[in-house]
Design a protein that fits this description.
mainly alpha, 12 helices, ABC-type transporter activity, disordered N terminus, single chain
Length: 284
Amino acid sequence: MNTTTSTDGLARRERGITHTAPPVSDTPRNAQPFSAALAQSMTMTFRGLLKIKHNPQQMFDVIVLPIVFTVMFSTIFGGAIVGDVDNYLPLLIPGVLVQVAVAASVVTGVQLREDLDKGVFDRFKSLPIARIAPLAGALSANAFRYVVATVITVGVGVAMGYRPNDPAGLALACLLVVTVAFTLSWIFALVGVLLDKASTVQGVSMLVLMPITFVSNALVPIDTMPAWMRTIAGANPVSHLVSAVRGLADGTDAGLQVAYTLIGAAVVLAVFVPVTLRVYMAKT
């Protein structure tokens, strides 16, 4: 035994000085109060918006798709379905609003997978911030993309002759579309966390997206479909959203369809937010 060490220890005990280990906290690492987590999520949202500013190519799809879809579908289907483009636009624009915003939500999962592959979230783990903040911020920042998509879709429609009966109702419809797109982004975020490659995330997401957007009343009335497909399209949540948007824009009674849409969005959030967070925490 070292005599000097023993003597020093005895002297400290005689003076009443003891060395104790710091208490071990039961609080999980990076656990934050709700207010702090919310503020950090908003900071990460701002970071996501700055990424869009410095890399505007991320906006390519939400700028081009509304133009291409509106012009192409109105030209192809307008004469066949209602006789001319002008009368088809009130049917088409709400459908394109929904299709473009829902398609834009797929990018959330792809970008999340790319950031995970680059180790971006590993660097965030070393910061004294809530673990949820980077994920919530990324999803919230993408809401800007949905807003741009809806504005361009309406703008192109108006340029082609679309005139909603209730402009205020159309504004509410756009807000509803953005809300649903944000809700769906949690599903694609889960896909992005679960799968290993960004290309796989995009492929699987589009495989899911295409049937639910096209087997609906977005582009054509469902009564023109075969009976079996009519049943599927009628039960499709996208059809309820499109009907809600059309009703709000036309100034007709859309309360029931809006209620169906909001209930569906609430169910998706209740299921996929905790599941996505749990998987995200486990993966990072």
